[in-house]
Write a structure and sequence with these properties.
mainly alpha, MerR-type_HTH_dom, DNA-bd_dom_put_sf, single chain, DNA-binding, elongated, DNA binding, 9% strand
């Protein structure tokens, strides 16, 4: 089967790449020396660059326009690369858990992520996000694990909560929900799953059928806990039932 022109990886010599990126050859050499670019393909003494290098140069230009220093950009790129992992493994749930609903991932260019969290995309925050598994790198794009978590984080930052504090809270929440998940899994394993296997039922379907129950319990308990905390914070007395008075 012939490869279409759109499917081919375009390659450029250094001068052509610099021209397409809108920079000088000297600047391109400088970026390469600073290891801001992955190594080119070598063919004898000729170095061949491709569209991935061009995309990286455009990312660097966009980040520079947003006030990042070259040193900061180098740290950001290093954080992206250190978090590289198989995206399918990150987002997929193999085996019996495959029927468990996954979060909707979001693919972003690095500059788009920087715009989404104005001034908050630091190497430290990126490293934390990578460590939590929120971010992964796929070629020249960043994959965020969850549209819901991304939007919530964005809203909290807009409300004045530093992204570092949001990520710190996320780590604490992760520990608590892992414990809650273990409680429900133990409950199902002890009282439901064994009988389901004996009856020849699909374990994944059984778990999927019961999952909303766990979600409802957590949502109700969290709502009541938030109400208690906020009343205590505001110094309000708890409600005394329906007295008929307004």
């Amino acid at each position: 089967m012939a490869t279409s022109e759109a499917d081919e990886v375009r390659e450029y010599r250094m001068a052509e790449l610099a021209e397409r990126a809108g920079i000088t050859v000297r600047t391109l050499r400088f970026y390469r020396e600073r290891k801001l670019l992955p190594p080119p393909r070598r063919e004898g003494r000729i170095a061949w660059y491709n569209d991935h290098h061009l995309a990286r140069l455009r990312t660097i230009a966009a980040l520079l326009e947003r006030g990042h220093t070259l040193g900061g950009i180098a740290e950001l790129l290093a954080a992206f690369e250190s978090g590289r992992r198989d995206v399918g493994e990150l987002l997929g749930l193999p085996g019996a858990a495959a029927s468990w609903p996954a979060e909707t991932p979001v693919r972003l260019r690095p500059e788009a992520l920087a715009d989404y969290f104005q001034g908050e995309v630091t190497p430290e925050n990126l490293s934390t996000s990578l460590d939590l598994g929120y971010l992964a790198v796929d070629g020249d794009e960043i994959v965020h694990l969850s549209r819901r978590l991304l939007d919530v984080s964005h809203t909290l930052v807009e409300q004045g909560v530093p992204l570092a504090a949001v990520l710190g809270a996320a780590r604490e929440v992760r520990e608590h929900v892992d414990a809650i998940a273990e409680t429900f899994v133990t409950l199902l394993r002890a009282h439901v799953l064994a009988d389901a296997v004996e009856r020849g039922e699909d374990v994944g379907e059984t778990v999927e059928r019961l999952r909303p129950l766990a979600t409802s319990v957590v949502d109700a308990e969290l709502t009541m806990a938030m109400n208690r905390r906020m009343r205590a914070e505001l110094g309000e007395a708890p409600p005394q039932g329906h007295s008929g008075k307004q």
